[in-house]
Amino acid sequence: MAERYWIETLGCPKNEVDSDKLVGKLSADGLTAAASPEDADLVVVNTCAFIESARQESIDTILSLRDRSADAEIVVTGCMAERYGDELAEALPEADAVAGFGVPVALGRKPAIDVPTFDLLNLPRPASARPWAYVKIAEGCDRNCGFCAIPSFRGPQRSRTHQSILTEVEQLDAAEIVLVAQDLAAFGRDQGVGERTLGTLVGEVADRVDRVRLLYLYPSDLDARLIDAVLATGVPYFDLSLQHVSRPHLRRMRRWGDGQRFLERIDHIRSLEPDAAFRSNFIVGYPGETEEDHDELLAFVESAQLDWCGFFPWSPEDGTHAMTLDGRVDDALMHERLRELSELQDSITAARRDALIGATVEVLIDQPGVGRTHREAPEIDGLVFVRDDLPVGQIHSVEITGAIGPDLLAGVDHTAEER
Ligand code: SF4
Known about the structure:
- The chain is α/β, with parallel strands linked by helices.
- It has helices spanning 13-28, 52-68, 79-91, 150-154, 162-172, 198-206, 224-232, 247-252, 259-272, 291-304, 331-354; strands at 4-9, 32-33, 42-47, 73-78, 97-98, 132-136, 138-139, 158-159, 176-180, 211-214, 237-243, 277-284, 308-313, 360-367, 370-372, 384-385, 395-399, 402-404, 407-409.
- The chain is 33% helix and 20% strand.
- Strands 17-14-15-16-19-18 form a six-stranded mixed beta sheet, covered by helices on one side. Strands 2-1-3-4-5 form a five-stranded parallel beta sheet, with helices on both faces. A three-stranded parallel beta sheet has the order 6-9-10.
- Helix 10 runs parallel beside helix 11 (331-354).
């Protein structure tokens, strides 16, 4: 019987939460964490299947762990297991079991862990080792964006109960909670709970922690009530999943909105809270994208002056609407457009960081010498370098004395290399 486990987590914050839950489950089953894969009897690989490069990274990771942990039991779980199940099990003899979060084990060799269906979402979690933690408030998605296969393997939206989420927030005992889901703002809709939507939950979580932050907001659901709820938390951070701004192109993506409406919503929020921070992600090169669509996106990025943006090349995904569309964008042109957008945004981000020099800001200390204001989400945005004697887990007022690209300096000397 396995005694020591190693969990390798790939992909997004939602996968990090699932791995945390597995840690809780394995510990409850009497297993202990191994110091390295080489020392483990059981190796669990929590995979990502969102796009081709993520799938390749998952396969490479499984094979390298097989080499490093010759005698261990290797269990593949996560999105690749969900999406490909038996097909993956047959193609990957290096794995002893392929267990999605919904299907029974494929190879008959009973692994050391039994992966419960769905209920992983509500499994208990150990206290957070960091002053912040992700909390996944729902599984699945009811939308059908043209480029995305997630609903096909994560299933329809299933929201957790408020109480199970609040219990987990208390268990984590973290200063900052980052709420995540595939479609966060649709929280509660599948439970027909009327008023008790995301806005209500944000308030309840904010009553229990110093900071609550939201990731992956679908723009049409960012209504006045949710905006007010976020602003009331004192963390005016808006991660808007926009993907593009050209109206006809967004319709080809089977998504709502357009650049004008997005700008109006951003301007409205800034009129309520000038210090609000914004992040968004955009897909470049989705079939049918014209030079006019691209120019419109460039103009939007210039006008919106967002703090952070991610630009991603479109990835062909089997089974998605995009695969039925003509008008494929040439690879070189797609990467040319990506380069143009990234260069523009980098200069905007740097200018917005420089504008903070001289300001006094509230920083949550994540580790000695490193913290974040309300403007920076963990793991994806810049950092604030501070004196390393400020206690971890506490919020401190500091004066910004410098900036290096995406990062800020508060009374310390720091070079880009030291990031
Ligand atoms: S909202 Fe769209 S992009 Fe996000 S998980 Fe759902 S279908 Fe995919």
